[in-house]
Design brief:
Elements lengths: L10 H9 L1 H7 L9 H7 L12 E2 L6 E6 L5 E3 L2 E3 L5 E5 L7 E3 L2 E3 L6 E4 L5 E3 L2 E3 L15 E4 L2 E6 L2 E3 L7 E4 L19 E7 L2 E3 L5 E6 L7 E7 L2 E3 L5 E2 L2 E2 L2 E6 L6 E8 L2 E3 L6 E5 L6 E8 L2 E3 L3 H5 L6 E7 L10 E3 L2 E3 L2 E12 L5 E2 L3 E14 L5 E6 L4 E5 L16 E6 L5 E6 L4 E5 L16 E6 L17 E6 L4 E5 L17 E6 L5 E6 L4 E5 L7 H4 L6 E6 L5 E6 L4 E5 L7 H4 L6 E6 L5 E6 L4 E5 L16 E6 L7
Helix pairs in contact: 1-2
């Protein structure tokens, strides 16, 4: 995930952050409407509001509740809880075991309609939870209409959960120092959540968050043995409200490092119109986040993932299963043992979108995609192939690199000077010397410089990268943009690519910049000149250059960063390689006695223990742990190769 590692490279989290909640709407320039107090209601011609109920403290959560259940074997039946002025409608305290809430209506709470913590034996059935989330409390990580944290042996069945406006429908999480349902921390020792059944509920038209979420937020806690069965989750596509879009969907996620989810069954649910993927299973928390043994069976999904279109990425999908890349040098996130069978999928671009998972099995599913869609797409492993791009727009693939089209045979206003793959490797961009950008596969167009005055020709491009950040890190861009660089060092940014500076912008005047490379977190970039001079912007650190070493050349053609961004390689037209920082030297063409004068680029392997060099004749040379998958060397080409890119690797522009 790509799309999310992947191109979905935290794609769900990015879409939520961008589109959900009042803050997101303001950022989009959409109206934010606040109806506060009696005056607001009267202004709309409604009846005067009822007097606020007496709110009591909801344990140590920092929230108030209209009703607190603290005794075991309590049964609430057939009552209406109007929680106006309280944060929670019904709070089920840790001291209350075997509580039954049946045929109850809960409405008007600032946050949760029903909130249960560290209890067991809970039954919530045939109840209506609607119109809650009217004034969300800051600092609540998961503000669902029905929220369970640290709960065991619970059943949530045959309820109507609709038109809640804080953060979606039903949440099932562990508890601990991060109490996902409250602004204050939970117990110091994490409390696991397990043996939960969520069945036959109508979860529809809730805004600001997902339909049903199963998530682990506390290392040492975790969530296990959860069944989501027979639920109906419906949203209205492209519907925006003052409290955000109707997001919908089912999410199973380990969003925090070192958290885990195990044994989840998602069966016979109907999901339509979801902003995100209809069903998303992912380890999105970065280092050592783990999701295992999830079964997706006999679900019906249609017209989901429309948020991709709302955010300018028209590539919706029904089911996404992904382990997102972690920062270099950290334990990977993992998704293992996912089974996908018997699902009915219609009106999606991707039926199944899989990225970096282990042991995923997909037996027959009924999948009907939109025109040009892909029923099942499995993101190839990094370093298992590469692309070559020619001056006339021709594209050549080797290994696992997919072919999605080219500009060969098309009249171009300027020659192609570079290419870059999308985050999930299911598409790529070509860029021309005039700044024109051409998209193929699932590459989206974020803008170009075509038809605009340029002080110097464009010489390369780089896509914004993606990985799940470690705790405390600034979130990376979402692989939803790109930079173009001109020969004068001018930088043009599009999509989520931020502008961090350029050579003309700092008063440096050159005419021989040859490439651009992003830092791993996307918060900066390096430019390299033909003489081997390196210029860093944003968080791109300077580790050295050829002029600074007293080495005088005039034929550097590219730059590539190491995976951790603590170094970079430069490559010359003769195949000479120069390493700076932690960029190790694994060989070069002159050192092998190979004499060429037409190398055009370099791309590192995923672990940085090797690299590929690409020649203008389509030849490919492998060093270190770079595997050779073939080349165009010795084949007649209509135009010389101008660049290459390796599958799943941040390379040179």
């Amino acid at each position: 995930m790509s799309r999310t590692p992947t191109r979905r490279t935290r794609r769900t989290q990015r879409v939520l952050a961008r589109l959900a909640g009042v803050g997101g709407l303001a950022a989009l320039g959409l109206p934010v409407v606040t109806l506060a107090g009696v005056g607001g209601a009267l202004a709309l011609g409604q009846a005067p509001a009822q007097a606020a109920v007496t709110c009591v403290q909801a344990g140590t959560t920092g929230l108030s509740a209209a009703k607190v259940v603290s005794a075991s074997t309590t049964t609430l039946t057939g009552t209406t809880v109007t929680a106006k002025g309280c944060d929670v409608g019904i709070y089920v305290a840790p001291t209350a075991k075997n509580v039954t809430i049946k045929g109850v209506t809960v409405t008007g709470a600032n946050d949760h309609g029903i909130f249960a913590e560290d209890t067991s034996g809970l039954m919530i059935e045939t109840s209506t939870v609607t119109g809650n989330g009217v004034r969300p409390t800051p600092g609540i990580f998961d503000n669902k209409a029905i929220e369970l944290v640290g709960v065991t042996k619970a059943t949530i069945t045959k309820n109507t959960v609709t038109y809640n406006t804080a953060d979606g429908g039903i949440g099932v999480q562990d508890n601990g120092p991060l109490d996902s349902g409250a602004p204050k921390p939970g117990p110091t020792t994490p409390v696991a959540t397990n043996d939960i059944t969520v069945s036959d509920n109508n979860v529809s038209h809730n805004t600001g968050g997902c339909g049903i979420v199963v998530a682990a937020h506390n290392p040492g806690g975790g969530v296990s043995n959860v069944t989501l069965d027979g639920n109906t989750i419906a949203s209205t596509p492209f519907k925006m409200t003052p409290t955000g879009p109707e997001i919908g969907g089912i999410v199973v996620d380990a969003p925090i490092p070192h958290t885990s989810i195990n044994d989840v069954s998602v069966t016979d649910n109907t999901i339509t119109g979801s902003l995100i993927a209809g069903i998303a299973v992912y380890a999105g928390g970065g280092p050592a986040a783990s999701v295992s043994s999830v079964r997706l069976t006999a679900n019906t999904l249609s017209a989901d993932g429309w948020g991709e279109q709302a955010a300018g990425r028209p590539r919706p999908e029904a089911i996404m299963v992904a382990a997102y890349p972690s920062p270099p040098g950290t334990p990977p996130a993992t998704v293992t043992g996912t089974v996908i069978t018997g699902n009915a999928i219609t009106n999606e671009y991707y039926g199944l979108w899989l990225a970096y998972t282990t042991g995923t099995t997909s037996s027959p599913n009924s999948i009907t995609t939109v025109s040009g869609g892909i029923p099942v797409y499995d993101v190839p492993l990094p370093g298992t192939g590469y692309w070559l791009a020619a001056r006339d727009g021709g594209v050549f693939t080797e290994g696992s690199a997919g072919f999605y089209g080219s500009m060969a045979g098309t009249s171009l206003s300027a020659p192609i000077v570079g290419m870059y793959p999308t985050i999930d490797q299911a598409g790529y961009w070509l860029v021309g010397a005039d700044g024109g950008v051409f998209t193929f596969g699932d590459a989206n167009f974020f803008g170009s410089m075509a038809g605009k005055h340029l002080n110097a020709p464009v010489v390369g491009m780089a896509r914004t990268p993606f990985y799940a950040p470690a705790p405390g890190e600034t979130p990376s861009p979402g692989a939803e943009g790109y930079w173009l660089v001109g020969a004068d060092g001018g930088v043009f940014s599009f999509g989520d690519a931020a502008y961090y500076g350029s050579l003309p912008g700092i008063g440096v005047h050159v005419s021989d910049i040859v490439g651009i490379a992003p830092t791993p977190d996307g918060h900066g970039y390096w430019l390299v000149g033909r003489d081997g001079g390196v210029f860093g912007f944003g968080d791109a650190r300077f580790f050295g250059s050829l002029p600074a070493m007293g080495v005088h050349v005039s034929d550097i053609v590219g730059i590539a960063p190491t995976p951790d961004g603590h170094g970079y390689w430069l490559v010359g037209r003769d195949g000479g390689v120069f390493g700076f920082g932690d960029a190790a030297y694994y060989g070069s063409l002159p050192a092998m006695g190979v004499h060429v004068s037409d190398i055009v680029g370099i791309a590192p392997t995923p672990d940085g223990h090797g690299y590929w060099l690409v020649g203008a004749d389509g030849g490919v040379f492998s060093f270190g742990d770079a595997r050779f998958f073939g080349s165009m060397g010795g084949t007649h080409l209509d135009a010389p190769v101008v660049g290459g890119a390796a599958v799943g690797v941040i390379g040179a522009g």
